[in-house]
Write a structure and sequence with these properties.
Length: 499
């Protein structure tokens, strides 16, 4: 068989400096960049990961040290190669990487110098560095080989471990910039940066950090506590039915949650449940690959908007890494788009979850059962000529009692109620509910004696209308908001103590 002639070609190598500066613009922020490096530590089997932010103005440094399996000289050199892995190659089911670019692009997005030192069991420490300025000056892919001793304290910490790796960022032109070490405002921004990164990592790796933990993560010596977006340990959290959906011959698990209404949580728990992006932006789907969060709080382009009355809806989706291409997982592992074959199922699940979350939000955390029927609400929603308004229920016992006993004043009281209805500050309530949910007072929280006096007043009115004690108690328990205070309702006095 005759060999085909070699095609004519030109060898066109990319300019190193131009390519690297382009890679810096992939779109990482510092949180997603650091999360990408932690993926490598997890893949190396690390049991402990230490993230350090060292403040020194424009000479500040960020490092990640792990006690994983480490690398010998050859493996380290390959890990530093741009495009060290073909994304089309088959991978281990637990692998968190894909492109062979994460270490480099994540690091270049924040720093001009990337230094990696590593050692495997029985090997000595090897260190390599990419220096973007040096590449620009030489015009060549010159990976520097360094004596480990030049890493100073970072070398010493690694030397104490049987195996492991340290990644060091210096020249933090993107992460920190040109700042003054003695400027308190610059230092404060650096501290805010640390807090922001810690919150992001607590969310992205929460399933690894929850007991029993797969590894421990420390930020400047402080152990990171996992942030569970679904508040599974809260009694008022409602987990809806799991669904297994199929796409392209693969199974995915979808688990919807309805979070507790803010009236069911303490201020501390409420603030924590809000998450790094806060309540409104944390609603939606949470897409995981191998327990690692890719997208946290997004409706995935399925046609839904983030609205306040759906903020209690959060939906967990687990996908295998064999579906990276179908879900369009990007290099940063911060974006995912479901394949067309799944859109119908995900839209259906989202609609159900949003609808039930809205019910919990509107009815102040009541369980998702038909028990709302038979409840007497003080406020009623009405629709007239396509316009929604809110009116005070004239059949509410206390309102009915006042109106029936008002005689000549009935017209004035009705006028007062109408005035209240027409001036409900709906825009302000919506704005404050979205922007400051933790500052919203719970029912009777600002009243000196709470609801006791009001419950007693309505109870007396019910008894005077001819109801016996048992009937009056039952009626009170069907009234909003007294149904939330059963202990106080059941404590209403017998006849001899009534007046």
């Amino acid at each position: 068989m005759q060999n085909k002639p070699e095609p004519s070609y030109d060898l066109v190598n990319p300019r190193p400096a131009s390519l690297i500066e382009s890679l810096r613009a992939v779109g990482y922020d510092i949180s997603t960049a650091i999360a990408d490096l932690i993926d490598n530590s997890i893949s190396a089997g690390a049991r402990n990961i230490w993230l350090s932010f060292d403040w020194n103005g424009s000479d500040s440094a960020i490092s990640i040290l792990d006690d994983g399996s480490g690398m010998d000289a050859s493996s380290l050199q390959n890990a530093m190669r741009i495009g060290s892995q073909n994304p089309l190659e088959a991978r281990n089911a637990d692998d968190l990487g894909r492109f062979g670019l994460g270490l480099k692009t994540a690091s270049f997005s924040q720093a001009r110098k990337l230094t990696v030192a590593s050692k495997s069991w029985g090997s000595s420490i090897n260190a390599r560095r990419w220096n973007l300025d040096y590449i620009g000056d030489t015009g060549e892919w010159r990976l520097l080989s360094l004596p480990a001793e030049t890493l100073g304290a970072y070398f010493e910490r690694l030397a104490e471990l049987p195996s492991g790796t340290v990644v060091l960022w210096t020249g933090l032109d993107r992460a920190v910039g040109d700042v003054d070490v003695n400027n308190p405002a610059h230092h404060a921004r650096f501290l805010d940066l640390i807090e922001h990164v810690e919150g992001h990592l607590a969310m992205v790796f929460h399933r690894f950090l929850e007991a029993p933990p797969s590894f421990r993560l420390f930020v400047n010596g402080n152990q990171v506590k996992p942030w569970d977006p679904f508040c599974v340990k809260e009694p008022a959290t409602q987990c809806l039915t799991d669904e297994t959906v199929r796409s392209l011959g693969k199974r995915l698990t979808v688990r919807p949650y309805i979070l507790p209404h803010h009236s069911k949580m303490s201020e501390e728990k409420l603030a924590r449940a809000a998450g790094p992006k806060k309540w409104l932006d944390q609603q939606g789907f949470y897409v995981y690959r191998n327990r690692r969060l890719l997208v946290g709080g997004d409706w995935l382009g399925l046609g839904f908007q983030k609205e306040d009355h759906y903020k209690l809806a959060r939906i967990q989706v687990d996908i295998p890494n064999s579906m990276d291409s179908e879900w369009h997982i990007d290099i940063k592992k911060s974006r995912a788009t479901p394949p067309p074959s799944l859109r119908k199922d995900l839209i259906r699940i989202a609609e159900l979850t949003r609808r039930q979350a809205s019910e919990v939000y509107r009815h102040r955390g009541k369980r998702l059962v038909p028990a709302v029927q038979g409840m007497t609400m003080l406020w009623e929603k009405t629709v007239h000529r396509g316009k929604i308004s809110y009116t005070i229920n004239r059949s509410y016992p206390l309102v009915e009692q006042i109106l029936s006993g008002a005689n000549a004043s009935r017209k004035n009281i009705n006028a007062l109620l109408t005035l209240i209805e027409e001036t409900v500050p709906v825009p302000t309530i919506i704005f404050d509910g979205v922007e400051k949910p933790e500052e919203q007072a719970k029912p009777f929280e600002t009243v000196r004696r709470g609801p006791q006096d009001l419950i007693h007043t309505v109870y007396v009115g019910l008894r005077q209308s001819g109801l016996d004690r048992s009937e009056a108690i039952t009626r009170l328990l069907s009234l909003e908001p007294f149904s939330s205070f059963p202990d106080l309702v059941l404590a209403m006095p017998a006849d001899e103590d009534l007046f």
